[in-house]
Amino acid sequence: MALVSIVEDESSIREMICLNLELEGYAVLSFSDGRQAMDSLDKLTRSDLVILDVMLPQVNGLTICEEIRKTSAVPVLFLSAKGTTSDKIEGLKKGGNDYLAKPFDLEELLLRVKVLTDFPKTTEKEVPEKYQIGDKTVDKSSFTVTDAIGQSIYAMSKREMDLLLFFIDHEGQVVSRDEILDNVWGKDVFPTSRTIDNFILQFRRIFEEDTKHPKHFHSIRSVGYRFTWK
After folding, report:
1. C-alpha dist (Å) from residue 70 to 59, 124, 178
2. Better-predicted residue by pLDDT, 189 or 10
3. Are 75 and 49 in contact (CB under 8 A)?
4. Which of the residues 2, 108, 171, 194 could staple to 117 if both were Cys, CB 3.0 to 4.6 A apart?
């Protein structure tokens, strides 16, 4: 099920789009102003499509799109009462994938949504089977960690591997404990945040030369963790 995020300040339009997308089988998140959207950028970037009004209170849609593009290639469909060619060009230059002027035909909107969510993703980069963290090598296929001379020193569990790959996918980003729990454990499982802390302690024992001064698995006070290669 594709997830569509809608940022639209006109409640009647927002509710109409949400209702019809849900009837078409999409999961939907909605935001009523630009500040809400900016405060939830992580949710927007994890969506399959963002429908973004251009003229929003507090923060306009063009600025939001620019922020999205700093970290994500999620398709963006602009909606706007400004429908001139120059307006559309500006939206596309800011990183939009499509631009629909108001008032719009609902059937056309749904078709554009379908095209953008069904469109083949850009060719994904080759995913390596092995990762080098410090002087340790992680083999994704065998779940083993080897040292600098190639000797196996640890066998990872599936959960440990899932968590490690999550950190690798978010390298350099600060991720909260709640975000980790949702993505690695799932929204229907309810471990405590202490569970993650224990996994991080184990990762440090495996990969860090000095567990008290980690180079790879960093604690961010009151927020969560950040993984870096160096």
Report:
1. 16, 18, 23
2. 10
3. yes
4. 2
